[in-house]
Design goal:
Length: about 70
């Protein structure tokens, strides 16, 4: 099971360019914008917990918007 996880979330994401990854994260930003939520205000200087139950898009969005501390 661990090797399958590595293939999906490790090897596959290594193939992404920076632009590809930005496009992958874009739907989360759009969702925040449509709900009139300021992502910078939500995340700047905040502590974020990544519980390892996804693909990291939310974590990346938080970091990109100024999250200060990160717990993995």
């Amino acid at each position: 099971m661990e090797s399958e996880h590595e293939k999906v979330y490790g090897d596959t994401f290594n193939l992404y360019t920076s632009d590809d990854f930005e496009e992958f994260v874009r739907p989360l930003q759009v969702r925040l914008d449509l709900n009139k939520l300021d992502s910078w205000e939500l995340f700047f200087g905040k502590r974020v917990l990544d519980a390892g139950c996804g693909n990291g898009r939310g974590s990346y969005l938080a970091i990109k918007n100024g999250a200060k501390n990160f717990l993995l």
